[in-house]
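User: Here's a structure from my thesis project, written as C-alpha cells. My advisor, Dr. K., wants to see whether a designed sequence matches the one we expressed. Can you design one independently, without my sequence as a hint?
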C-alpha cells in the first residue's frame, strides 16, 4: 500500500455563518462548528485512506475566538498521522476579514477517524509522510494524543500508555 503525504489529504471547506446557525450573542453555535469540522475532517481521512471512514473520537477542540454572524469561515483539515486503521486529522479554522481579506485563526481541532469495510470492520490505511515542519510536529505528537484518547475512552490502561508516562517520568 503506497504511502501518502499529508498535503494529499488537505481539505478546505469555506462557508458563511447564517442566522439559523448562531447563538443568542449572534456568534456561530459551537455544535454547528463541530458538525462542519466533522464533515471536513471525514473528507480528509477519506482522501488519505480511499475508504469509508467513521468518526472514532473528537480528541480536542478549542473555541478560542467567537465567529460572528455573516463571517466567511474556512476549515482546513489534513491527516496528521495514520496508524493501523485510524487516522488523526488536525484542523485549523480561519475567519476571513471582509475588507482586507486577511484570514485570522479562530479555532483548532483534532478528530480521529477509522477506515472501515462495508460491514464496519476496521481496515488498514496507508502510512502518512509529513513534509513541512508543522506537519512533522503534529505527526510526532499524535501517538501521545492517541494514547490519551484511548485512556480517556477506557480502551487503554494508563500503565500501558508509554508515551504519556514519558511526559511525567
Ligand atoms: C470506531 C470503531 C470502528 C472502532 O472499532 P473497534 O472495534 O473499537 O476497533 P479497534 O479496537 O480495532 O480500533 C480500531 C482503531 O480505532 C482506534 N480507536 C478506537 N477508539 C478510539 C478512540 N476513542 N480514540 C482514538 N482511537 C480510537 C484504535 O486505537 C484502533 O486504531 P489502530 O487500528 O490505528 O491502532 C467502532 O467503535 C465504531 O464503529 N464506532 C462508531 C463510529 C460512528 O458511528 N461514528 C459516528 C458517531 S455518531
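Assistant: Designed independently from the structure alone:
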Amino acid at each position: 500500500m503506497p504511502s501518502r503525504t499529508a498535503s494529499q489529504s488537505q481539505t478546505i471547506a469555506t462557508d458563511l455563518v447564517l442566522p439559523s446557525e448562531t447563538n443568542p450573542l449572534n456568534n456561530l453555535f459551537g455544535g454547528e462548528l463541530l458538525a462542519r469540522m466533522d464533515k471536513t475532517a471525514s473528507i480528509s481521512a477519506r482522501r488519505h485512506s480511499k475508504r469509508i471512514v467513521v468518526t472514532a473520537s473528537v480528541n480536542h477542540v478549542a473555541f478560542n475566538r467567537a465567529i460572528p454572524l455573516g463571517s466567511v469561515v474556512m476549515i482546513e483539515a489534513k491527516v496528521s498521522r495514520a496508524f493501523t486503521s485510524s487516522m488523526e486529522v488536525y484542523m485549523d479554522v480561519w475567519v476571513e476579514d471582509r475588507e482586507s481579506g486577511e484570514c485570522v485563526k479562530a479555532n483548532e481541532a483534532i478528530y480521529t477517524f477509522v477506515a472501515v469495510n462495508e460491514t464496519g470492520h476496521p481496515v488498514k490505511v496507508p502510512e502518512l509522510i509529513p513534509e513541512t515542519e508543522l506537519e512533522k510536529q503534529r505527526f510526532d505528537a499524535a501517538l501521545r494524543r492517541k494514547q490519551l484518547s484511548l485512556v480517556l475512552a477506557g480502551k487503554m490502561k494508563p500503565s500501558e500508555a508509554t508515551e504519556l508516562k514519558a511526559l511525567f517520568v
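When you compare it with your expressed construct, this may help: The radius of gyration is 17 Å.
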